[in-house]
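BUG: 3D viewer hangs when loading the predicted structure for this chain

Environment: internal workstation, default settings.
Expected: structure renders.
Actual: progress bar stalls at 90%.

Input used:
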Amino acid sequence: MRRPNTGSQVPENASRRTFLSLFPLTAAATAVPAVSAPAANAAGAGRGRPERGSDTYIAFSRRPGSFPLVARGRAATIVVGADDHPGVLRAVEDLRRDVERVTGVGPAVRRGDAPPRRSEIVIVGTIGRSPLVDRLVADGRLDVSGIAGKWETSLEQVVEDPFPGVRRAFVIAGSDQRGTIYGIYETTRQMGVSPWHFWDDVPPRRHDELHVLPGRHTQGTPAVKYRGFFINDENPALGTWAPEYFGPGKAPGFPNGFNKEFHAKVFETMLRLKANYLWPAVWGRAFAEDDPANHATAKEYGIVMGTSHEAPMMRGIEEWNRHAVPAGRDAEGNITEPGSDPYGGTGEWSFRRNREAIEAYWADGIRRMVEEDFEGVVTLGMRGNGDVSLPDGDGIDLMQSILDSQRRILAEVTGKSDITDIPQVQTLYKEVQRYWDKGLRPPEDVTVVFCDDNWGNMRKLPDQSLPKRAGGYGMYYHFDYVGVGRNYKWVDTVNLVSTWEQLHLTYTYGVDRLWVVNVGDLKAEEMPTQFFLDYAWDPERWPLERLHEWGRRYAEQSFGPEHAEEIAEILHTYGVLQARRKPELLNRRITLDPTKDLSKDEAAVVYDDQAGPYHLNHYGEMARVTREWRDLAKKAERVGRKLPRADQDAYYQLVLYQVKATANLYELREAEFTNILYAEQGRAATNRYADLTDARFADDQAMSDYYNNILADGKWKGFQTQPKIGYGDVERYGPDAPWQQPQTPNHVALPDEVFPAVKRIEVPDRAEMGVAVDGSDLWWPEADGKPVLPAFSPYQTRPDQYIDVFNRGSRPFDYRITAAEPWVRIDRARGRVEDEARATVRIDWHRAPKGVTRVPITVHGPDGAAVEVTAVVENPALSRHRLRGFVEAGGYVCMEAAHYSRAVNSAGIHWKRLPDIGRDEDGMEPYPVTAPSRTPGGHGPRLEYEMTLTTAGEVDVWVYLAPRNNVLPTEGLRYAVSIDDAEPRTVNVTTATGADDTYMNRRWARNTSDNVNRTSTRHRIDRPGVHTLKLWMVDPTVIVHRIVVDTGGLEPSYLGPPESMRVGRRR
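Structure tokens produced before the viewer hung:
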């Protein structure tokens, strides 16, 4: 078993395995646990953490000193003060229901200030609001010094002889309303109730008894103050299902709004996940109007309300759009058609042209917050209507005026001369970051929210050389996105290792005031959402080395301990495979025009929405990735068959559907693009692959139909309606089709279809032979010249190549294949072709001569037809014992970053392995992430790779990097490469790729879509033999996936070639 190794001691022969094999197993627990607290002087709010102790405090059988929450068919009475917070009183009812769901025994609940005379009772209360808790504190029976005055902190403790007539009490005490609520839900989670019980029909883990272990227990104080998510891009899935299930919205004319019943389920789930902050849905929805009781419901539950980056001053943008008709203007800005809005303005969402109306609109939002007395975080700033940028002419001066106006409104409406105690944020989303970069700064008490690039790569982080802001910093992150280069919103596509790396980076740079993540429909993003919130609560609890443990516990909370390890492995592998490329992008190939300069010309990036990104004939790429998905789906089905019937609905929603449906989509795409290629070649098998494509599409629709109509007795009707296959069809969907989901002009999603369309051909009534070879899309005898197989080498990773013999007619024929040399071996050298046959070619290296030999191979077919194929056999005249490291073959050397020969750490900088962060392997990153930039060379930190080159001359060294942006106050992200003792050549990734995450140009879209930054340097090799490639650290936060040395034979592919063979001494 591979052990965790995040420094420089990664074994050089490490091969790709699932991330879960890296870490030793730990003892199972019922849920992601609480921890024991010190008796006093607990860590304060923010970054201080309490001491660690036992993982869990709920047991399912009697233990020494344990408290019987439920035992022998009886449940302890729950007592809560009548004047405690409304959110606490409501959550106590959930505690009662959850105990009954787990044990079948429902405890009594008493509201009051006097304890009942019972042997054992449960006391739930907030310090300062619960007379019973306060009495225990005053009597010295409960020490709350470790939590009192803290933010959202709870204490769970068994107290002996708390009151006369009461022998013992289990106390859940909170520092504030949410602290108490979190203590309640931590208890129910440890009992066996999943936070996702409603959203995924997860049954509780049934137990006859529940016991509380002795001791003091706490989950600590959250590291991030405000933690939550943004329900967004919710059409068609959530937007179809929710009004059907919960009933229509209350706003006249807008029945698809989300009402308080819907939000009550969202709020409950948030609290079970220890979230406290929500950006409500905005796609045609207005939180305050869709149900006037929505804000009151948030207050009842104890949820902090916010609004998204495009919706300032506690007002959703749809509250404007529903009631305003914008004026029309000509090119000079003159009104040509009058507009209107409820404030007597022009109806335009423009601070410059409609200031008075906009200010009155904002004032009403703040007034509502004051009058309804709900807890909120006020968004400042302004963006264009519809989640777009403000007009180009609107710049820093206007944004400063907007901020000044909003701050004035806050003071006037609230009546406060000092508004610094009102939580406020400005989110630097997309173009707004330009204002920050140019020097605009909101007041010091405002939280500045940095954003990712919508694809999980942070764009900017605080400059570590500057003083801290009073308002601190926040983060806005994405698990779902609508926009360039293409929407991704169907299923979870998150690689948790990559997410961990970005969250760790962000927290390390001091971003800890507010974290919010776009979760799309929420459902389908359960795993990354829970991880995001768990990490925000306590980053130190979940270092990289414990990520596997987190995944196992996540699986266990829904399916129990017996199969948690297997399920966690499935979900981990799923995330790794899915993150290679979003499933919506499986019919887009992105190539580069070699005649254009990528760093300067956006047109250098070429989109082809009628081709697949994975190559059918280069390195067997498409077949390999499809096989990996098929194998994973089989494993998921196999594990699913082991689960009890009660778990089947939850397993389908949390695991099986997303795995099977994605695997099916890969099979569909492989068949589809094989069909298109075969149609061009006139193969008789063309129509068979069209039929196979149609069958996989039917399977996709059948899975959706099951989800919508049968799953959980039809509970999820309409939810699985998100298109994912038909992207790119401009003729059907219009000019936005390359990035937008298939939809009508008025933004209604359309049923899916296969695009590009499959092709069917008329197959002539004859026998006609065609020949195709490995590595080529051409066919013979149609193509010019002779077919040539990829070069053979004793050091190649794939030992064989193939020759396809296919029929272009409907009548079968016999074929035979002969080689001019006996040491060229051919499997299936003769046979009968109905539509196609594949022969494999191998070399007997014990008999093959040294040097380069070209061997003719003749394919004989009907009516005397023959095609000569050339096999190029390269057997270097190098003795094997002189080879070292990775050996050139096929015109390249490919090395995974973590398979280095030597890691050089210096100046306090070391190399950390990030398991499975790459598209095919582990990644390497210099640590700490706050390390200063370095000049490459000398004794600086570097990774060294031994390699044996069989040729000399110029080579291109391609470095595959994570598609990270430059979060530092520098001009770009840099690394350097040298070979042997040559001077390092520095690459500025930002300028070399030309990617701009602010303007989201095509070069940026290419990198994010492909999930890689791929840059190169050119070097000269004077002689064949052993050489050392050195990759130098220049800037922190650069993550290296793999290195490919192109000696002249590198073929186009999505993932790159297979890793080269490695020989020589092993450590």
